[in-house]
Fold each of these.
Amino acid sequence: MSVIKKYTIDRLLQRGVSIEDIAEVAFNYLTTNKNLNINLDECINTLLDILNKREILHKIILGIDIDEIVERNLFESPIMDVIKGDDGLFGVDELFGINIADLYGAIGYNTFGYFDKTKPGIIDRLDTSKDTVNTFLDDLVCGLAAAISSKLLHNYMETSNLNTL
Amino acid sequence: MSVIKKYTIDRLLQRGVSIEDIAEVAFNYLTTNKNLNINLDECINTLLDILNKREILHKIILGIDIDEIVERNLFESPIMDVIKGDDGLFGVDELFGINIADLYGAIGYNTFGYFDKTKPGIIDRLDTSKDTVNTFLDDLVCGLAAAISSKLLHNYMETSNLNTL
Amino acid sequence: MSVIKKYTIDRLLQRGVSIEDIAEVAFNYLTTNKNLNINLDECINTLLDILNKREILHKIILGIDIDEIVERNLFESPIMDVIKGDDGLFGVDELFGINIADLYGAIGYNTFGYFDKTKPGIIDRLDTSKDTVNTFLDDLVCGLAAAISSKLLHNYMETSNLNTL
Amino acid sequence: MSVIKKYTIDRLLQRGVSIEDIAEVAFNYLTTNKNLNINLDECINTLLDILNKREILHKIILGIDIDEIVERNLFESPIMDVIKGDDGLFGVDELFGINIADLYGAIGYNTFGYFDKTKPGIIDRLDTSKDTVNTFLDDLVCGLAAAISSKLLHNYMETSNLNTL
C-alpha cells in the first residue's frame, strides 16, 4: 500500500470513519436487490481498489483538511460560516463527492444523490455529530460508497451480458 | 413564447407529460420542508422560465426523438436493445437529466438522484408504462423537476440571507 | 475482444476513423512534453483498454447512430437542423465527449477543450468533411483522445511519485 | 451590490485580479470571431451579473482561501505540496473552474479547457507568478472568463435564431 493511501485511510479513521463503515453503506444498498450476490468483503476490496487513485485520495485529504481548518477557526473569510452551517447553497462539498462517484460512470450520480438524501449508516452519524464539522466528510463518504456500488454493478453487468451485446 | 419552446411543450404532452405533472414533482418535494412557503404556481412558472434555455429544449427534443426512434425500430445498431431495456449501464439518459439539473447548481445533483431512485408521481408512471419507450423521458423529467427545485431554493436562500452573507 | 467492442471499432472505421487516428492525436499532444517518454503503441494499447468500458462503447455507438439518422433525414423534429448545422448551442455532442474524458479524471476536461478548439489531425478532417454529418463523431474522438492522454499521464505520474507522496 | 459580492471582488483585487482583467480574456477570445459585435463593457457587465450567484462567489472565496492557507503553511497534510506544486493530478482546482463555466451550458467546457491550456492575459501572469500560490485562482479566472463567453454567446444565438428554431 502506498504511503499516501495509508495516510488517507488513517485520516478517515481519525475522523471516525472506517473502511468497513463506508463499505457497509454500499453493501446494504446493493443487497436490497435480490438478484445481486455480493458480500461485504467484495465491497471492502472494491473500496481499497478505488483508493489507489491519487485524484480521489487528494479530494479526501483536502476535504478533511477544510473541515478541520473550519473547526480550528483558521479561515478569516465569511466562507467559515457557510461551511460550518453546511449551507445548502455552498455546493463545493457535493462537488467533491459527486466527482468521486463520477469516475465510475453515470450510474453513480443518482446513487450519490440517494445516499446524500437518505443518509444511511455512517453518513447519518456524521451529519448529526455535534462536536465536529463534517461538511465535506459526509459528501466524501457518499461519493466513496456510490463509487463502490457503481464499480461492482459495472463488473457484474459486464460479465453477465458480455455476449448478448 | 418562442416557437421552439411551444414545440417542446407539445412534444412532452404528446408523450403524456404536462407542465403541471413536472411542477408537481418539485412541489411535493419542496413542501416536505415546512419552512418553505412555496405554491404550485411558483413551480409552474419556474419551469416555464427554465424552458427559455435552448440548450435544455434541445435535450428534451433529442431525448424524446431517441425514445421514439427506438419504438419505431429505426436504429440498426445494438444500442436499440440497450435503450429499450433501459440498461443500467447505458448512462446517456441520466447524463441528459443530470445536465439539465446541473445548470442550476450543485444542489441539483442529489435532488436528481433522489427523484431517479424514488420515482415520485409522473416519473413512476413513465417508468412502468408498458407500451412506450421512456428511457430518456423519465430522466428528462427528473432533471426538470430537480431544476425547478434548485432554482426556487436558490432564490429563496439568496433573498433570505442576503445580508448575513 | 468482446462482440460489442469489435462492433464499435468497425463502426468507427466505417465512419473513417481508425484506432491509430485517435491514438495519434493523443501521441502528438503528449510528445510536445519532452519529459514524457511515450510511444504510439502505448497510446494504441491504452485506447484499446479504454474501449473495454461498455458505457463508453454505448456513447460511441449512439453518437454515430444519431449522426447517421440525421444524414438519412429520419428525425422529424427541428433537432435535425440543429445537429446538421453543428449549432454552437446544441451542447449534447460535447457532453458525450466530455463524459468519456471525464472517466479518467479532471485533467481530461481541459485536454478535451483544447482538442475541440484546435482540432488536431483526424478531428479537423471530420470537422471539415462536406458529405457526412460528424456532429457527434468529432466530439467522441476528442473525448477518446483526451481519455488516452489522461490515462497515460495518471499512470506516469502515479509511478514516478509513488513514494514522495 | 450585496456585501458578499463586494467582498469577493475585493479579494480578487487583493490577489491581483480585476474585473477588467477577467473580462478582457473573454473579450479577446470572442472578438477573434468577426461575426460577433461585442464590446468590453458587455463582458464586464456580464461578469458582474455572473457574480450575483452565491454558489460562484463561494467557490471564488474558498479557492483563494485555500491558496492563501498554502502560502501560510497552515495545512499539516501532504496536500500542501500537491497544491503548492500545482500537481497535474490534483484536479480539484480545475473542478472549481469547470463548475463555474458549466453553469452557463456545455459550450463552456471547451472554452475553459482552451483558456487553461493557452493561458491568455491575466491567466499567464497568475501562472508564472513566483511569489504567490495561485493554484486555484488561475482556474477560477479561466472558469469566470469561460462563463462570460458562454453567457454572451447564448444571448447572441438565442436572439439571432429565435424564429428559425
Amino acid sequence: MNTIPKKRIAIDMDEVMADTLKARLIRYEKDYGVSVSKQEVHGKSMYQAIPEAHRQQVRDVLDELDFFRHLEVMPDAQKVIKELNEHYDIIVATAAMEVPFSFTAKYDWLLEHFPFLDSQKFVFCGNKSVVLADYLIDDNPHQLSHFTGESIMFSSPTNALENGFKRVNNWQEVAELFLT
Amino acid sequence: MNTIPKKRIAIDMDEVMADTLKARLIRYEKDYGVSVSKQEVHGKSMYQAIPEAHRQQVRDVLDELDFFRHLEVMPDAQKVIKELNEHYDIIVATAAMEVPFSFTAKYDWLLEHFPFLDSQKFVFCGNKSVVLADYLIDDNPHQLSHFTGESIMFSSPTNALENGFKRVNNWQEVAELFLT
C-alpha cells in the first residue's frame, strides 16, 4: 500500500515553543530593577528598548549554561504540537549556533516538555536555509525569508510591525491553520 | 548583476572530517589492553568486532564531554574543504542528537580546525533527511539513503561492503570530484 508522505513542519523554539522574551524581561528587572513590559518591545528588539549601557550584559545572559533550561512553554504549544505530530512530520529547528553554550539546555528542555517528539528530528542550526521542510513556523523575519518552503510568522511583540509573511498569533491559530 | 547560486555541499563530521574510529580504537586498547586494527572492522561496526561484554562501555565513551574535542582531522580535509569553501556553499551536518553530550566539543572542534567555515552553517541534527543541500558527503549508508540530494559515500572501514552509493576514498578524491 502506498501512503502519502506526511508534510513536514519545522518549528522554531525561542518565542514560538518557549517564552524566551518573558524570561529575558524578568531577568532584566532582576538585574537592573527596571520593569520593561512586552508592550515596550512592540515592533523592536529588546536591545532597542533598554539603555545602550545594559545591552552587552543582556546579551551575555543568553550565554549562561542554564538560561534556556527554565523557559516557560508557550500557552497551548504542547497540546497543539502533540496533535500536529499525529498528522505531520514535526521537526524542531532552533538557531542554536548563535548561543552555542545553550545546546544542552535546549536539548534537555525539549525532552522535558515535548517528550513525544523524536529527538532525531531536532535541528540545532544557524541559518535556516539549510532546513528541508514544507513549512517553517518562526518569529524571526530573517529566518523566514531564508527558508525555502512556506514561511509562517509566529507573532511576537518584536515582530509586530512585519508584514511580509502569513501570520499566526498563537498556538490556537496554528491549530486552526493545520488541523481543521 | 545576477550570479548563479553556489551549489551546497553538506559534510558529515565523524569518519569524514574527523578520524573518530581511530580515536575509538586507541581508547579501546587503553581500556581493555587489546589492540583492534582498522582492518578488523572491515565491513562491520566496531561493536561487531569486540566482545559483547565490552560494547556498553565502548558506547559510553561517546558520552564523555570531551571525547569528540580531541579527534584527529582526516588527512587533507582542511586543505580540500578550504578550497571547496571558495566554490561551494559548505555546511557541516553531524548527527549530534545521538551523542547530545558532545554538542560543545563538536562545536569547539570545528572552530579550532575549520575556522574559515561559517558557524551559521553548522547543523547538529539527527536524521539527515532534514538537511537541504545538493550533495551530502557521509560515511553512514543510512544517512546517505535518507538524504534527498546526491549522496556520496566517504570510505570508512565500516562501510567497506556497501555498494549503493558513489564512493570517494579520501579527501583527494573529493577534490578531484568537485574541483577539477
